[in-house]
Every structure is written in structure tokens, then in C-alpha cells.
Design brief:
single chain; 71 residues; mainly alpha; 3 helices; 0% strand; globular
């Protein structure tokens, strides 16, 4: 599959930014979803794994759930 870690780096930085700014009070469930995304992405990068469709789907599902909880 894909091994372009620049996109993963961008997502990692974006999620870290959301967590560090904490502009609104996120629930523990919302924070947990972001941390789960962060861990999946970081593990893929650290282990130099291929960026699979399964990883992309898992991260998109977690982020969709996070943003759905905000509305």
C-alpha cells in the first residue's frame, strides 16, 4: 500500500493540536477517541508499517465519531 508518512505526521500534529488547545471542554469519551486515533497513527509511523485501507478506515471512523459527538 502506501508509505507516505507526511500525511500521518500532519494528522498526528493536528490531533495533538486539538488535544493541547482544549479550547472547549471535551468529554472523556471525546478525548479517548482522539487519543485512540493518535495511538494508531503513531504506531503505524513508529513501526514503519504500510498505510493500509483498514488503518485509514479505522481513523476516519474514530474521527467521524468524535466530530459527531461535538454536534
Amino acid at each position: 500500500m502506501i508509505r507516505n508518512y507526511q500525511d500521518i505526521d500532519d494528522l498526528i500534529q493536528g490531533i495533538k493540536g486539538i488535544l493541547s488547545k482544549n479550547r472547549c471542554s471535551y468529554s472523556s469519551e471525546e478525548k479517548s477517541l482522539l487519543v485512540d486515533c493518535l495511538l494508531k497513527l503513531q504506531e503505524t509511523k513508529d513501526k514503519k508499517l504500510e498505510i493500509s485501507a483498514e488503518l485509514i478506515l479505522a481513523v476516519v471512523e474514530l474521527l467521524a465519531t468524535f466530530f459527531e459527538l461535538l454536534t
